[in-house]
Every structure is written in C-alpha cells, then in structure tokens.
Amino acid sequence: MSMRGQIISGEYQKMEFVQDKDGKEYACYHKDVENFDEKKGLSLKQKEHCLDTSQVVGDTW
Hints:
Elements: H1 3-13, E1 15-19, E2 25-29, H2 44-48, E3 51-52, H3 54-57
Antiparallel strand pairs: 1-2, 2-3
C-alpha cells in the first residue's frame, strides 16, 4: 500500500457515520460527535464539522 493509501485509511478509521433525526447520514470525525444524542440529533455546530453524505453521492444512487 502506498503512503497515500495509508493516510486515507488512517483518516477513514477516525470517522463515524451518523444518522441524524432528520434521516440524513453524516460523515463526521469521532472527536466532533463524541456527545451525539440520537434523540436530539446533531447540533448546528456538529453539522458544521460533518459532511452530509447525500451531497457527495446524491439522493439516489
């Protein structure tokens, strides 16, 4: 594996995929969602640090 692949793999392992109360899935670093409460959903501050995965792939793929 190249160094680039090792870096990408390391970063991916730090991420969590979170289903928000609105039904959207977000890719977030663990440190940004440590206090995530499924009942309350993601706060606006947490969403600023996460990526809405539907923006990457699209609504239906």
